[in-house]
Amino acid sequence: MYATDFRMTHQRRLILEELKKVKTHPTADEIYVIVRKTMPRISLGTVYRNLEILSAMGLIIKIEGFGNQRRFDGNTNKHYHIRCIKCGKIDDLPEDAITNIEVDHNKIKGYSIYNHEIQLSGICEQCHNAK
Amino acid sequence: MYATDFRMTHQRRLILEELKKVKTHPTADEIYVIVRKTMPRISLGTVYRNLEILSAMGLIIKIEGFGNQRRFDGNTNKHYHIRCIKCGKIDDLPEDAITNIEVDHNKIKGYSIYNHEIQLSGICEQCHNAK
DNA sequence: GTCGTTGCAAAGATTTTGCAGCGGC
DNA sequence: GCCGCTGCAAAATCTTTGCAACGAC
Fold first, then answer.
1. CATH code assigned at A128
2. Helix B10-21 vs helix B44-56: crossing angle, to nearest 10
3. What pLDDT sits at residue B84?
4. Structural domain boundaries enclosing A86
């Protein structure tokens, strides 16, 4: 699938840096637009490949499950997301918004659990006001 | 987007019935394969349109966020899912597997919350044994 | 009879991939 | 210098849509 040793190319570093800079949760195409300002000849395929590799390396987070388009998050601290069902915007939840969750591994027979994701959905302030 | 009155066509009813029958969480394409056994001339576009409408009607659940492909669930009771990261299979979690979750709406500024989803990931028994 | 729905096929959207040359280490 | 990586372009995958005929109510 991937190589076992990775090289930090200019393209890879730029994608990583730009993703760490923004507070949004951009799609591959949005990242493509951003990095082309610095590196106009970069290809969309390279962006896709590097996002995949960076998330496999644990340097960024791949967000699937909000609409059809994959999104990426430069913040690798464990946190949850909320999505506006009108405009599709994704925001981070404050750390203390969800508490007390308990996952009983014994109740889930046959699986070894690796991770859990929580995704809220609602309507954001702008969309509420625009209504 | 959709019409305001819906007609229960043969195609729509069949898709709904087959989805209620299975315990899996099929993709549109898998449902297409199933319903063609009964209705060979049904088109994939019809399957997509009806799955969209049925989920808008609340008769089925649309599952996004596990891999790239949309899946559907005939079980409309509130429940969570777990996905095997090796084979992609999705199972329902037992009701009591996740407890005590508290969402503090006041901590989430600007949003009115409509829903929350929880998705676990892990390795299923078959994949664990196959290793 | 009205108008929502269908099958078909083409288009759209997103993501992946083959390849030859390039460039990190 | 090796071998992972890139740009390019084509292909693959998944989903949506225009249209004329059809069928539910």
1. 3.30.1490.190
2. 70
3. 87
4. 78-131
